[in-house]
C-alpha cells in the first residue's frame, strides 16, 4: 500500500485559525469584485477542468528541509530535517548513514531533547512562532522514532529542556512546565509569566535556569545594571516553581551579565561580556567563580551558544563573523583556547550544536550538519558530511524531473515520477538561486558575495539525470532572478540584462539597463519585463529592442515583493506583508494599478493554474477558485508542514518549495485495504474542540487607484490608497 504522509492531527486546527479564515474571507471579497469587473473573457478560461483543484489535491510527500535541532546518543545522531526527525548512524560522523526517520510531523523541528527512550521535539507551526507544539517520539526502536503525543503551547517558544518526567519550555510568554511522565499525553502543569519573556532554558536537578533578555544586577558600588541573564527557579515541586532570583545577581567582576549558559554537573559555563566564565553553581544563589578566559567581543544572547564536552567547551559566535572557538576546560580554573576558525557559513541562533566525541556537530540552516574537527588545533577542519536539500530558492519541472536551485550547492535533480517517494538523482555546480529551462538546457543564477562574483550557469540536460555544467558567465552584480521569454533570457541584479539564447548552449548578451535598487523578482511577456526592486517598486522595461532596454513605467507598491505571476493581461503581485496587488497590464508598456488589498498576512509567492490562483502564506496555500470568485465555500486552505517561498504548477501537480519541498497533486488511488488512522490523543481532541470559528467583520475593498497614462515613470506614493466610501 502506498502511504500518503499527513501532518499530525493537532496541526489540522491551524486550518481554522483566525488569520487563515480572515485571509480566506478577504480574498473572496476582493476577487468577487474582480470577477464582476467587466472582464467576461476570463470566465471562459476558467471553465477548463483543473486537475490541481483543491478538492482533488493532496500532499504526496515532503523532501528534506532546513535543520535547527540535533542530539546525539551513541552511535545515533538525531537531526531535525524539515518536518521530520532523521536518524543517522554516526559511528563515523564524517560518513553518516541514514538509518531511519520519524513520520511526517506538523512542521519544522526547531528543538530536540532526548530523555530515556523518548525524544522531545519542538515544532514551529506557523513560520512565525505564534503557535508552537511539543511532541514526544518513542525511541524503543532507536532507528524508527514513533509519534506518541503532542501538546500545543502559546508561542513563540525558543527552547526546551527536559529533566526526568518534566519538560520546560521558554518563550515570549515566559516559562511553561509540562508533565511528560506519560509521553502519549503530555500535560501542562503550570506557567510562569515573565514580563520580557524567555529565550533559553537549562535544567539541572531541582533547579531550572531561564534565560531572560533583561535582568537587573547589583554592582559593588551600590548602583544597578541591566543586561541579559538567567533567572533561577526551584522546581523541586514542578507544579509550583519558586523564583530564586537572578543567577550571579551581585556582580563581583564588573559588568558581566550572562548571555548564554550551559551546565555540566555543578559546573556552569557562562558566556558573558567578552569572555567565558566557569562557575561552581552548587548553590546557584552563591556562585563561586572558578576560572575565566577573555574572548574579546565574543558574546551575544540572541545568537551565541555553547556546547559542552568532557574537557572542552565550544563557543559559537553570532553570524556576523561566524566565529567558532574551542576552549580547553580540563582544568576549569585555567581555561585556554584550543582552536578557533571563521566559518564561511553562518550558524544561527536556533541552530543546535552537540559534541560527538572530540568533534562538534552543528545543525545547518541550509539543511544537514557541519562537523568541526580540531584534533589538529593548528588546522581546524570544518566539513559538511550530511547535506540534504534544506533550503530551496527555485524550482522547474521538466516532465517527471524536478530541477532544484540550491544556494551554495548548485542545481539538483529529483525524480518525482512517484510523487509519494521522490528520489534525489544528482547535484551539479556550486551555487544557484533560480532556475529556468529551455531546449535541453537549464540556466541558473547566483548573486555571489563581496569575495565571489555573481554567476550565470548553463547546464546541458542531454542526460537529465546527470546535468553537466557547460558554461559559466559573469552577469551584473547581485544577479538573483531570471526569466525566459521566447529566445530571450532576462537576468535581474544591479542591472537588467537581456541575453539571446536562440543557441541555448551559448547565451549572448544583447543589452542591459541599470537598476538603481536591484531586482528582487521579474516576469516577462512579449518583450516587456516587469521587475520588482528593493525599494518596493514595480518597474516596467521595454526590451522589444533588446540592445536598448528602457524604462516605461514605475509603480510604488505597499511593501517588498514576495512573488509575481502573470494572469493573462494582469500581474498578480504578492507583497510580503501588505497583501495581493492586482495590476492591469493590458498595455504592457503602461501597467496600471487596479486593486490593492492590505492586511492579508505575510505572503510568500503567487502562482496561477487554469482554474485557480494559489497564494503561499506562512505555512499554507490559499486556493482561489476563478470559476466562481464570489462563493466563499469554494475557497480552500491547504496546510503545509514547510514554509513555502516558491510555487510552480504543472498539469496535475503543484510544487511548493522553500524550507524543503512539498509535492501536491491528484489523490493516489490504491487498491490495498485501507488502514484505520490512529485515534488522536486526548490533547489533540481538546485542541480541536477548543478551536472555534471567529466572528469577523464584513470585508471591504479599502482603496482603488487608476493611474493616467501621463504618469509614466512617476512614483505614485501620494496616490497609493484612496479610501473607499464606508
Give an account of the 3D structure.
The chain is mainly β. The strands form 14 sheets. A four-stranded antiparallel β-sheet has the order 1-56-55-54, with no helix packed on it. The termini are far apart. Residues 1-50, 298-302 and 669-726 have low confidence and may be disordered.
How much beta, percentage-wise?
over 45%
Query: What name goes with the CATH superfamily of the largest domain?
Result: YVTN repeat-like/Quinoprotein amine dehydrogenase
How far apart lie the N and C ends?
A: 56 Å
Mean pLDDT: 80
**CATH architecture group name of the largest domain:** 7 Propeller
Major β-sheet profile: 4 strands, antiparallel
CATH class of the largest domain: Mainly Beta
The shape, in one word, is globular
Global structural class: mainly beta
CATH fold descriptor of the largest domain: Methylamine Dehydrogenase, Chain H
- What share of the residues lie within helices? under 10%
Radius of gyration: 27 Å
Could you say how many structural domains there are in total?
2
Question: What's the total helix number?
Answer: 3
Q: What's the arrangement of strands in the largest beta sheet?
A: 1-56-55-54
Number of strands: 56
Low-confidence runs: 1-50, 298-302, 669-726
SSE topology sketch:
Blueprint: H1 18-35, H2 41-45, E1 58-63, E2 70-73, E3 76-81, E4 84-89, E5 97-101, E6 108-115, E7 118-124, E8 131-138, E9 146-154, E10 157-163, E11 166-171, E12 174-179, E13 187-193, E14 200-204, E15 207-218, E16 224-234, E17 242-246, E18 258-264, E19 267-272, E20 275-280, E21 288-294, E22 305-308, E23 312-316, E24 323-328, E25 336-342, E26 353-356, E27 359-363, E28 369-373, E29 381-386, E30 394-398, E31 401-406, E32 410-415, E33 423-428, E34 434-438, E35 441-446, E36 455-460, E37 468-473, E38 481-485, E39 488-492, E40 495-500, E41 508-514, E42 521-525, E43 528-532, E44 537-542, E45 550-556, E46 561-567, E47 570-575, E48 580-584, E49 592-597, E50 605-608, E51 612-616, E52 620-625, E53 636-639, E54 644-650, E55 653-658, E56 660-665, H3 682-690
Antiparallel strand pairs: 1-56, 2-3, 3-4, 4-5, 6-7, 7-8, 8-9, 10-11, 11-12, 12-13, 14-15, 15-16, 16-17, 18-19, 19-20, 20-21, 22-23, 23-24, 24-25, 26-27, 27-28, 28-29, 30-31, 31-32, 32-33, 34-35, 35-36, 36-37, 38-39, 39-40, 40-41, 42-43, 43-44, 44-45, 46-47, 47-48, 48-49, 50-51, 51-52, 52-53, ...
